[in-house]
Design a protein that fits this description.
4 domains, elongated, Rossmann fold, alpha/beta, six-stranded antiparallel beta barrel
């Protein structure tokens, strides 16, 4: 159990006394019921807003309150295990802070910490932005699985980016073991390179850039919150017509997540002709999972290096697309939508992009050549689309649960056009349904036009064309509405 020793003065006569115990919490919003820490209030009932510094004048973990009658110290009784490194850093740097808390039977329950400029004043420091950023990151982290060893070292803060070596150093110190072990050790090595005068300026620049990218990503555990199946079904029904087998498979995946609180070991592979709504299904699943998403278009990736990044030996080296996706999302949990997976094996010259995907899909970790670090992928959920699964290698196929997207019947196409495609287009064009009327014969003509295609996109384009024509007639001819019959539709669509 660590002891805060902020005095830096040797004291051989006094034994170190740890007054607090740590507790593990995964609460994301601190409150009096779920505080960051609890201070002893037997000497005095502390004010709701109290200023002072973390200190250790007699080898006791304490907070020195700035009161009218002078400075009064209070022992720290309990600390959220995620915050021990941060509080130690605040004390070692003699940072003046303002606590917000409530007195209860246990003590003074602190749920907010703000940095103030000087002494007991109320003016906030410019550095408070970093402190709030740090607190928000810790609150979003899982409690460390083991105690931190002594030798291991209303404002929104997430808009802040860690770019300077000082801010990166402070973040690493405060984050402690809330960072994955391999990333924490990797960060120490790169920090040493970034500070070294024995390497080239180019190497220092690359090391600092890599650190900034890595530290600005929220590395989360594999724990996944439960999802409401009814809400998931509502989203699927809103986005997709029919496809009951597809919807059932997705709901089964949701139930599995709710039971295990982890993402499934297999992603989803949606197979069907172009334009059948595969991407729409993928976006609906990402919406259900409430995760950020990114797309990988395999048809445009010819070189594995586009995925894995380039080595730092080159002056223009940079991370790959996959690492960029983590960086853009700002967290390690996200949905990878891999479009045209059947074209992943068409690499040219320098290797096969499909081989790179295997490392991403195995959930064992992914290595980017620029970062030179194993990236945890336990929070990655892949959803792939393909036109022809015959062109997908067996190793890739084995990483997915395959869902074949069925073709639509004529009756289903009628419903999709009249209940989904046309209303969506009318809404986008600010047209009322009574301004653009499609007769049953006209609807039959639309379906006849596209009877030999499974592309839902064709129906959407037809709805777009008809609605645009109706809008033109309303504006140009000053009519109140347009009714389309079969002949008008045939002439319009060709």
């Amino acid at each position: 159990m660590p002891v805060f020793d902020f005095s830096n003065t040797p004291d051989e006569k006094k034994d170190a006394v740890c007054t607090y115990e740590t507790f593990h919490s995964n609460e994301s919003v601190p409150s009096a019921e779920h505080p960051i820490m609890v201070l002893d209030n037997t000497k005095k009932q502390w004010k709701h807003h109290s200023s002072g510094v973390f200190t250790n004048p007699i080898k006791r973990t304490s907070f020195a309150f700035d009161e009218e009658e002078g400075t009064i110290s209070a022992d720290i009784i309990r600390i959220d295990a995620r915050f021990t490194s941060l509080l130690r850093w605040l004390g070692e740097n003699h940072i003046n802070v303002r606590l917000s808390g409530e007195n209860n039977e246990e003590g003074y329950a602190v749920y907010k910490i703000r940095e103030i400029a000087f002494g007991g004043g109320t003016k906030l420091s410019a550095e408070d932005g970093f402190l709030q950023f740090m607190i928000e990151r810790l609150l979003a982290s899982s409690a460390p699985t083991e105690e931190i060893d002594e030798d291991e070292q209303e404002e929104e803060g997430d808009d802040m980016k860690l770019t300077s070596l000082q801010s990166i150093t402070d973040f690493m110190t405060c984050a402690g073991r809330t960072l994955p072990d391999n990333i924490r050790l990797w960060a120490r090595r790169n920090l040493a390179v970034a500070r070294s005068n024995e390497v080239s300026p180019e190497e220092r620049r690359h090391a600092q850039r890599a650190l900034s990218i890595m530290m600005n990503i929220q590395w989360k555990s594999n724990y996944f919150e439960a999802i409401d199946p009814q809400e998931a079904r509502r989203i699927l029904d809103e986005e997709l017509y029919g496809m009951e087998r597809v919807k059932q498979r997705i709901i089964e995946t949701i139930i599995q997540i709710n039971r295990t609180h982890t993402l499934p070991a297999y992603g989803l592979l949606l197979v069907g002709p172009a334009g059948t709504g595969k991407s729409q299904i993928a976006y609906a699943v990402a919406r259900i999972l409430k995760l950020p998403w990114t797309t990988l278009d395999m048809s445009s990736i010819n070189d594995p290096e586009q995925l894995t990044g380039s080595s730092r030996v080159y002056a223009n080296a940079k991370p790959g697309i996959i690492m960029d996706a983590f960086s853009m999302a700002g967290e390690s949990s996200l949905v990878f939508i891999i479009n045209e997976l059947d074209k992943a094996a068409s690499g040219k010259g320098n290797g096969n992009p499909a081989d790179v995907l295997l490392t991403l899909l195995d959930n064992l970790g992914f290595t980017d050549n620029y970062m030179e670090c194993m990236i945890p992928t336990v929070g990655v959920y892949p959803i792939a689309t393909a036109n022809d699964k015959e062109n997908i290698s067996a190793p890739l196929m084995s990483r997915f649960a395959v869902i074949d997207i069925p073709d639509y019947t004529s009756e289903e196409k009628k419903v999709i056009f009249s209940k989904f495609a046309l209303p969506k287009v009318l809404k986008r064009m600010s047209l009322r349904k009574e301004e653009c009327i499609i007769t049953p014969e006209a609807l039959d003509a639309v379906i006849e036009k596209y009877k030999n295609t499974s592309r839902i996109r064709d129906l959407e384009q037809a709805a777009e064309h008809i609605a645009a024509n109706a809008l033109y007639q309303i504006e140009a001819d000053h009519v109140t509405s347009v009714t389309f019959d079969a002949k008008m539709v045939r002439n319009l669509l060709g």
